[in-house]
Amino acid sequence: AQSVTQLDSHVSVSEGTPVLLRCNYSSSYSPSLFWYVQHPNKGLQLLLKYTSAATLVKGINGFEAEFKKSETSFHLTKPSAHMSDAAEYFCVVSDVSTGRRALTFGSGTRLQVQP
Amino acid sequence: EPEVTQTPSHQVTQMGQEVILRCVPISNHLYFYWYRQILGQKVEFLVSFYNNEISEKSEIFDDQFSVERPDGSNFTLKIRSTKLEDSAMYFCASSDITGSFQETQYFGPGTRLLVL
Fold first, then answer.
1. Is the peptide bond before B8 cis (omega within 30 degrees of 0)?
2. Which uninterrupted H or E stretch holds B53?
3. How many cross-chain Cβ pairs, A to B, lie less than 8 Å apart?
4. What is the pLDDT of residues A68-97, one digit of tens each?
5. Which of A31, A91, B30, B58 has the most C-beta neighbours closer than 10 Å?
6. Could you tell me the residue ranges of all domains in chain A?
7. Which fold has domain A3-114?
8. Which positions in chain A touch B55 (Cβ < 8 Å)?
């Protein structure tokens, strides 16, 4: 069975400093991995996805994530945080080998950006 | 940019009452989904729907739940007799078919359901 662990429930950074949101996954075969962001009172917006092409994936708003199979990790990074990045971030896995489309979500990381 | 919409944004109901949550998926998408998030817990998959039938469902999706695509645009989730533990944010999502199971699911803003 597939699962996702987000290692930090809350992360606080200062504006202009780097962001690192950590995610480890468990999957039986070759996963598809996603990061979604949820701003207050908004829906879940796709930031980026990995689907077995390049291991370094670039997303919207300057975010990127690196798929590391040996570490079963898919950490999300951004070089310089902006106040508008404050939101809840979800790491999500889908295991294509099972033929299932259901997404499995991590518990979320709330990012605070201090001025 | 096309987006998934959901109505209502908030709903309060009495225990035992039926509720219908509505979603309008992105127009050319063929797969539809419902997820829910109980306060303080993870987002959980409920059901997927394709070609007018359920293609996949979780253990949560028991007989009190049903889904329907009553016309060419709406996708609904019905809870027949609500329980206190059904209080949650319900998200609708839709995706296109790429043939590789790697398509992206696009989510709506959610309906917050409160059962009293």
1. yes
2. strand B53-57
3. 58
4. 988 999 999 999 999 999 999 999 998 766
5. A91
6. 3-114
7. Immunoglobulin-like (2.60.40)
8. 101
